Amino acid sequence: MISLHFLTFSTPPATLARLALRFRTTPAQFNSHFPFNRRFRALFTMASSLAPPPGQSAAVQPGRIRVLKEGSAKQMGPVVYWMFRDQRHRDNWALIHAVDQANKRNVPVAVAFNLFDQFLGAKARQLGFMLKGLRQVQVDIEEKLQIPFFLFRGEAEENVPKFLEECGASLLVTDFSPLREIRKCKEEILKRVSDSVTIHEVDAHNVVPLWVASEKLEYSARTIRTKITKRLPEYLIDFPVLLPPKAKWVAAKDQTAVDWDNIILEVLRKGAEVPEIEWCIPGEDAAMEVLMGSKDGFLTKRLKLYSSDRNNPLKPEGLSGLSPYLHFGQISAQRCALESHKVKLRSPQSVDAFLEELIVRRELADNYCYYQPHYDSLAGAWEWARKTLQDHATDKREHVYSCVPFLSVLCFMLSQLADFLILAIDTELNINRLEQLEKAKTSDPVSWLCPYHIATVSFLFVLLDFILICALKLQLWNASQLEMVVYGKMHGFMRQATSSFFIIL
């Protein structure tokens, strides 16, 4: 149960009613939050009277769904959920919507996943992790929800319309993705499917749906934070219980059989140049263990370290460790936020910092990719950044990697020179007595240290500082890249630090 203390007198009545219904709060619990507020009590009573019977799922918020195509079918066929970004059976708004629509139409529902031959350079490391997670998804969906899981290989533009036609589907539910490859794929599917098929897109990846949070490209976290925050009371709600659909899909067992072992071996063989990693176990169960496991869970054991250590590359235990699971949709960001709210009193600063990264920063990235068509090139940078690059495009530059030996030697020489200068100044000024320094009682003349000497020493220290920074950046760059190659993941702070490398040089 989430605290309802974020409700205010300015909250619209309709929102309060939906929230009371969504939280499934009992009258006693609700009155304990607002014992003297008749308005809240009345709204809760109204919402409770409209609540679905126990065990029946409530509909997904309309704002989370977009109708990409309105079909013309009069006869109701099956519902198909095309899963690709949110690869889980728990806490999945798209799957919840598909089952809800199937129950309303009294038709069966199926889940389909299309494995592309190639996707953005993914190799064994990425595809192996994804496929092993999907193998668990199939087992959970078929055993717990009695919903068939179909795996297709090849082009989704061909496989998805073909499957819809074969099964006579009337509704296709899809995940949302801001990437141009997926959006182009959907546009082609819209053209190829029958006019009788309706297509819904559900944002099950973001806490606040992208198109609800903002209708334009946002400049920074500062500009989108308020827009997201004011929508959280409506969208940061618990998930309804998902039960098996009323109507069962009639299909032979061999139609849904997937030879996972051979598919995974084939993918691992083709992408062997980027091998799998062992430290990160794929799947929904593993993701929940990382979030709140009893042994080393983020919220149960490591949360207090997050606010102080998350930007320290030497303390990787300060990170949540959830990014691989969030990326492949094996855990819901909304579930992570809900569970973190429950332990906020224990470590409020860490929870606030975690929610900032989990919700605001992640959704800002989706906003950028969706509203900026050139998100993966310099053409997508802001105008001031492009102008700066253009102004210095003709500047002479040395190859960074060819400077490493020279910088190392020069750093050593200048460090020795700095030590000598410090020793000379200390000796001349007789400031070797700590007590005199602390009490500002030194009386030795400093007439010998003329402005010329001061300027020379200052320049040398500035030069030393610059060269040390350059050398350090070179080493950090190499270390960060090696971490990515060997470990499969770069520390979050190092992603930001290395991005400024070329600017400094």
Overview of the molecule:
With 505 residues, the protein is of the alpha/beta class. The chain folds into 4 domains: 13-50, no CATH class; 62-262, HUPs (Rossmann fold), CATH 3.40.50; 277-391, Serine Threonine Protein Phosphatase 5, Tetratricopeptide repeat (Alpha Horseshoe), CATH 1.25.40; 400-504. The protein is 53% helix and 6% strand. The protein has helices at residues 13-23, 27-33, 38-50, 93-105, 124-144, 156-167, 180-192, 210-213, 221-229, 232-235, 253-256, 260-270, 284-292, 298-302, 306-309, 323-327, 333-342, 348-371, 383-391, 404-429, 434-439, 451-487, 492-499, 501-504; strands at 65-69, 79-83, 109-115, 149-153, 171-175, 198-202. The chain has a 6-stranded mixed sheet with strand order 1-6-5-2-3-4, with helices on both faces. Strand 3 (109-115), helix 5 and strand 4 (149-153) form a beta-alpha-beta unit. Helix 22 (451-487) crosses helix 23 (492-499). It is globular, with a radius of gyration of 29 Å. Mean pLDDT is 78; it is low at 1-10, 21-57, 428-434 and 436-449.
Rg from C-alpha positions? 29 Å
Structural class: alpha/beta
CATH-derived topology of the largest domain:
Rossmann fold
Bin the helical content: 40-55%
Total E-strand runs: 6
Q: Could you tell me the strand content as a percent range?
A: 5-15%
List the helices and strands in order.
Answer: HHHEEHEHEHEHEHHHHHHHHHHHHHHHHH
Can you identify the CATH superfamily of the largest domain?
A: HUPs
